Amino acid sequence: MPNHIFINKRIKSFNKKIKVGSDKSISIRSVLLASQAVGTSKISNLLESEDVLNALKIIKKLGINYKKKRNFYYIEGFGLNGFNIKKKTTINAGNSGTLARLILGLLVKSKFVVKLTGDESLSKRDFSRVIKPLKLFGVNIKSKNNSLPIEITGTKFLRPITYDENIGSAQVKSCIILSALNTPGTTIINSKISRNHTELMLKSLNYPIKVKKKVKVDKIFINGLKQFKSFEYNIPGDISSASFFIVLTLLSKKSQIIIEGVNVNKSRIGIIQILNKMGANIKLKNKKLYKGEEVADIHVKSITKLNSINCPSKLNSSAIDEFLIIFLVAAKAYGISKFKDLGEMNKKESKRLDLAIKFLRLIGIKVERFNNDINIHGNPKIMLSKNFEIMNFLKDHRIFFLSCIAALTLGGKWKINDKKSANTSFPQFLKILKFLGANIN
Questions:
Q1: Distance between CA 396 and CA 95 in Å, rounded?
Q2: Class level of CATH domain 4-21+236-435
Q3: Where does the chain hold its CATH 3.65.10.10 domain(s)?
Q4: d(CA 431, CA 414)
Q5: 377 burial type by CB count under 10 A (0-12 exposed, 13-18 middle, 19+ buried)
Q6: pLDDT at 215
Q7: Does the annotation mark 321 as catalytic?
Q8: What percent of the chain has pLDDT over 70?
Q9: Residue 1: its pLDDT value, please?
Q10: Does 24 have pLDDT greater than 70?
Q11: Catalytic-labelled residue, pool 23, 238, 297, 321
């Protein structure tokens, strides 16, 4: 099977209702927490992407059994520190920074060495941000240059810590929270606000975790060594996956879409807030609360005029995975859009800020860069006719998705390589595009 696609035509008008892939962040967390619960958890609508399947492979290698029946995954846990590790073990997190950082938090009592590896992209990412707090807990951890591979050996003598998480990283915060589950006493995290799925999931399990909200910081208290029972969880749709169809609709003529059952947690909807500030008309309907998470249908209509934005940096953490596709909207907007403090984009699967600038310039958009700030000079009349080839050397799934949406809305003849990268987070992406009428070869 070829690992590339061709798009030679813009998408025609559409009026459709779709469902996107399940939330990847919640899928990974549900697998990991089920592995630490007492009893058999039942998870429905689990995202079957490479990142989540790697989470299942890891818990199985660590001695946790699971099985699938129809649309349900059953995971048998034996409580905290319930992994059955009898010798030095190697586990592979693939491309997932979330999985890699969170699983380290669950290995703080491992009697044997566990070696954590990942793919080429993940192996280039910085793990110092979790290595530092893990060492404060008393965990034995070894790494060259603060990157993968990492060897971790747990300790019986874990000590609670107080930690200031100043990055705004849910992965770092969650690693500390999961470490605290096996630690006697109370661990305290002063966390810059970021997505809060781990806290909400633990609260839904009646775990003694408390969150005191301040203006820019969440003060989180976790009492360790408290067992929790198995659970049932129905995973909602992923806002990150929905974002590409939101923008496809906005930039297509006379089109509208309803994306059903999407997780619209307030820490994740920065893209909707930003795009509405730019003149979009995105509405959330049929809202409901599920285990602390807000879920809704997203209604989007295309629009003929989009305005530039001076994007408030306070929205960065809630849109960090969506800025690539937001920049495409800025490329079609009237005026100069300004974005600040985006250095965290370069800590993702690839150096996304660097690649975003390169991509925008490739399609003829003027971009000014000032360290981690950028100005995008919009061109509402942009219409491409050239040939483009996107190589995607680091196999970043969001670069692949961005390229497809650009090809379908801006025109031109595109060869987009590495379609397999879609399997990382959203295997049904191309299928849904074709359902909407996209001509993809």
A1: 9
A2: alpha beta
A3: 4-21+236-435, 24-224
A4: 18
A5: middle
A6: 83
A7: yes
A8: 100
A9: 79
A10: yes
A11: 321
